[in-house]
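note to self — DONT lose this again. spent like an hour looking for the file last time. sequence + predicted structure for the chain T wanted, 722 res
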Amino acid sequence: MASSQVPGRRRPGTMLVSAAVRALPITLCFFASACGIVKPTGKPEIAVEPKSEDAGSAAARVEQGEPPRPLHQPIPLWKDGKIAGEIDAASPGPGQIVLDLGDDWVPYIFTERSAPGDERTPQSYRPTYLALARGEFPHDIHGARAKKDRYLEVFGILPTLTLVRDRFRETQRQDCISKIDLEPLKAYERIVPYIDMPKARRDSATFVAIDRRLKQLMQKQGVDTPDKLDTAKLSAGDKANLRQYEKMGPTQVLIRAAQTRLQCEGFLKGQFLEGGLDWSTNDAIAAFEKKHRVFGWGFVTKDSVGALKEPPMEGERTAALRVLTERAMHMAGFLEDGGTWTAPDKPRMYKGPDGKEHPVPNLEKELREAIIKAFGLDTPESTLAWLESLGKVPGEKLVAFEGPTTPEYYSPNMELSAVIDRGDVWYEFPYDDKGRERAQPTHRRPMLTISTEYQGEKIPIARFGTTIGGWRSEMVDGVEMWKYKNSPVGERVWRQIVAAPVWLPPAGTTARTLLTRDPKKPDSFIVNLHETGPSYASAYGLVAAYHSRFRENDEGEVELQGDEGIRTHGSVDYMSIMQRHSHGCHRLHNHIAVRLMSFVLRHRLHKRLGERFVGYKSTVEQDGEEYEVKLDKTGYTFQLERPIPVEVLKGRIVGRQKTPITASIPKYDPAVGAYMTPDGGAVTVDRSGTMRDVPVPVPEVPDAGVVPVPEGVVAPAESEHH
């Protein structure tokens, strides 16, 4: 049993770790330096070597009669689009942000040491992250998956500036802005989902036919647009055509404009249905969304059209600013993005030492604006010119700019806590007596809020959408059934944060979760190592914080009491975070999870335990064949000196069922027309999960070989010989 203390409960200033965390068997010996407590500084790991004297900020000291002091590591300070002097990277002044433009930059969770003098604790996923960030496709499972996904920023892999510049150059070369008309995209009215190919064909064919007919009528009446047609001169059929055109026209024209752009930029290739949201167009929009970090399904939506109607070069500028801002958030150790504001112009307030109310800043917005001003990135042309000025980008390239000052409530060892509001919770069984999904609307989605304590006040500094558990598939006695996967309510702690985590599949995991089609043999299966990890596409994404139960003793020490299998973690299933459920864990977009956990480690004392060896083996059966799942090590573990308290709120229970259903529920078999139990029986299932035995339905099957006799014809007698 492990014990430590949780801030915000008892004697927060005196909390110490008193024992080790119970964990998986460890056979790897760690160096002493790797297990030492790291004191976070909120600053990036920067080598300190005396190189030159002050060339910029020292000038002010000289004017004041002070001798210039040597800079340990001089780096350029950018202002108004040009270099305006130098500062010391090891000791930037207030509001001076050090930014690494190098191609070897990684978020803190993927670093291997906390200070230049520390011995490295190797992290095996780091080279993979860097290769994927450069746009490379390693000759392994990671490269194969990345080649398929192509654009990885939406999955949490931030592209290097070299890759951003290469994409910028390609867009400039394509010059699509001179070949496309973006105006129709501004007429977006409603979401247009992909339904199926037959519908896409019908829509396209119908509109083409109507459009052809209306052009004939326009020519006959001598007008140039359908809205100028004199309806008094039209037949009833042509009036109906005009009404249908007016109904379908905006969507068809919008889809055609989108297809033209997607085709010019190389997303839409081969044959496609003009004006129809067919599979090719859906796939092209999905790829476009990934490139521009739009979270969607490849449908025509407000967000996808918002990116499509932006001029291509401006889209590349937006991508460059997004990458620079994300790096700056990490290197400055910031988290605030305006998510706690009650409205765009109504920030959350807190009381400062002066007794006055001060706003919790939107540091992401302030950093973006400061980056634009410092580097002169006001236009696509100036942004590309600045990227070109970098030349061949080395592994590390430090620069500085003037940005927002660090909030006064920050410290090297912040009193952080998390609250997860489960939102609207449905416990009812979600399928009716025909196996059809029942509507279970939610008006409040789950939210995770990070707060810090300052001068006796808890200040919410960031809020993110997340998930809770729901009804999921699980193997029970070899049969796939429904099981409600609850997200436990109450107080927990984060003690361990694991980068590039590995998921050890529990008993009952379905074959379709653990297996995937073999790309070399489509009729065969292989173990889906992307699901287990490490991988940006793993069950736990790029990083996970482990929830632990605990109890407090009389001295205020926290004794950890076990792992329920619940995590706050990243996920590539980004649409589930907006609309669906998990297996009980609290999912975040991968880039948010990476930012959040890097922030926590920047501002809390921790140890680097690194990767641990494990001996995990299990088998899964598919089509009568067994497959072995074998994992030999975990992800890269950071252990917090003081656990972070996490409170999971009950939320608002909606529906008739007020407690989780614990029984496993059989799945509906459409071939039989009933919920079939593993023993071959049939049951009905109500909303509360109550099952009642019923006779197994007997499908009505006509006698084989009997030909229906036409009315009025006498059928021949059946033979007695069978």
